[in-house]
Amino acid sequence: MRAASFQLGRPVVLTASILLLTSLASGQLPYNFTVNSSASGLDATLSLSANTSGTLIGNYDPNSNPTGTRTKPGVWGPFGDTENLPVNISLAGGFGNTVHTAPTGAFQLDLDLAGGLLRIRNFGSNLLGSGPLTAPATVTLETDAFRTRNPTSLYPGGIPVEIPVGSATLSQFAVSQTGGDAFGTLTETGPNTYSFAVAPLVDLTATFDFFGNPLEIPPTSVLFPLGGELVLSGNTALLTSLQPLDFSQTQPIGQALPQYPLDLPTIIPPGDTAHVLLNLTLDEIAASLSGSNSLIADGVLVPEPAVALLLLPLVALRRRLG
Fold it and tell me: Which of 80, 178, 186, 201 is least crowded, fewest Cβ atoms below 10 Å from its Cβ?
């Protein structure tokens, strides 16, 4: 058994060693890159929205809040002293704003200078490296016709009502390479200077607050184009990329949200505020991004000893088997 193991193991060790040494000798240069956050930036118009459906009902409770708002569907008919009935509604909310962020991140590039090719691996970037974004937010409410007491008001129904709700926060916005390595082109334009183009497939994720609930847009796979200039200097490299971004995605959800209180301005007559409770289901989330991504990254050549370390277990195995 030992002899058979030896005969099978030696070609494997030699083949792996030859492949690794050939890779080092072929002129392929592996670099580790770190995004320069202070020099990079995402400048874009960002829009996030959530569409919901469900009911609203007054915050009246005969025991804990007997003077609270009561609601009842319809325009006509009696309205009992203790009646408080749900009203069908749909509600859309979110925010949009022009944003400038300072991203962080890292990735690896393998350069084949002779072949004019490159490979990008493990690309990941937190596009909110400078912190969460806060922007003014509104919700648009559509309801069936209904009435309220405390205060007394009529809501005709079928008329969208826009309600400012302060601000919304985008707390996560990131991309992470998926689907394996991506290959691109590398063209020499001067001494140690190259233009490049590559488009890794990434999962884009985002989380924003809607009515106090953090809502996550499920990971969405999109191409993330990178192109620009690569300058090599000894064991370091500087990558500069400026690329347009244009992304739009709608994702069905179907998730029940926690009950949320809302102060609703009265319609007829105006000037007062009804206090209602929303019971909603999140039907879908939509996101769009249009702008440009400036990426400056500093690279360090992976030293040959680090690559050669991969050979040590093979050499040790060869010695043990020999």
Answer: 80
